[in-house]
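Posting for a labmate who doesn't have an account.
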Amino acid sequence: MSFLDHLEELRWRVIYALIGIVLGTIVAWIFIDYIIEGFLLKPAQSSGIHLQNLRPFGQLFLYFQVALIAGFILSLPNVFYQFWKFIAPALKENEKKYISSIVIFSTVCFLAGIFFAYYVMLPITLKFAAQFGTEEIENNFAIKEYLSIIISIMLAAGLVFELPMLSFILSKIGILTPKLMQKYRRHAIVVIMILAAILTPGTDPVAQVLLAVPLVLLYEISIFVSKIFQKKD
């Protein structure tokens, strides 16, 4: 394929991915009340946090934002599939058979990160935020800031949980080796701490530590994955 043909192929893959996101957003909008009230607001309720809307039509815009993000998450298998189908022509025949497994594994890793953030990170982080400070100041959270925090933490956790998948891919094509990862383990831990500080909103040290610990564990898992799937000489 020529360069322009590659661009045309990329354009259609992006279009197919966007169509999936639009369909996912429509499905999410149908269940938007459950997503917000039964899922996103529950961490606040269990932590004793009082939420309030401070903008006219603020809830309407938040509903659209949540529906779009939920639509993206619902369409993840299609997004990963379109990405790998674009790369497929560059792969060998024996490598193409891994595409379905990679799509499934990538989706599972991302969802695992989201559920880890929801059930482990968010309860501890929100409880810390709700109870910190003097009793003379009432901690009422703006709904926009609250949703921004929990959505960013869940998406960040979903991305970092893709580390074993990235290790698998780079090991299969020969870029990454277990010895290389073991050699730079100390450097990786420093980078992980920096990433945890960047990916968690604000300066909450609890969220940073809760994200850094599984990142270190994922790095060790990635070394194990690299040992299994490293490219043979």
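Reply:
Got it, the structure tokens are right above this. The first strand starts at residue 50 and ends at 52.
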